[in-house]
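Lab notebook, bench 4. The sequencing result for the construct came back, and we need a structural model before the next group meeting so we can plan mutations. Quick request posted to the team channel:

Model the 3D structure of this chain.
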Amino acid sequence: MVWSPHVTVAAVVERDGRFLMVVEETDEGVRLNQPAGHLERGESLTEAVARETLEEAGYAFAPRCLIGVYHWHHPKKDVTYLRFAFGGEITGHDADRPLDTGILGTRWLSFDEIRDSADRHRSPMILRCVEDWRAGRRHPLELITRHA
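Done. Here's the predicted structure in token form:
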């Protein structure tokens, strides 16, 4: 059997000192997350993060930088995740767009609110991504290459 990590993407979006978060129903209850999800066959990482942000939050997202790559093993599920977190900007909003199944809504939270709600995060990567963003971690998108 071949082991394969789950490759995911996440959008870290800051506006006026607040960060875009989604509230979602999970098998562990209601949790907070960045707009995030799995890389799908045939798409680039930047295409995936733009798609997930639109599907989960109704916002058009233009990734501008890679914040970091995060490795986390979920202890209860025995699943390993590789998360590519992107910083960028919102380029539009479709308030009438139905959100993905399981998404209960969006919230714009301050850093303190995110930090203080860590017990309700979907994973520990959420806070780390925001901390890295606030620390100024920005890597050019050219760091990621894609070959056909």
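The mean pLDDT is 95.
Will bring this to the meeting.
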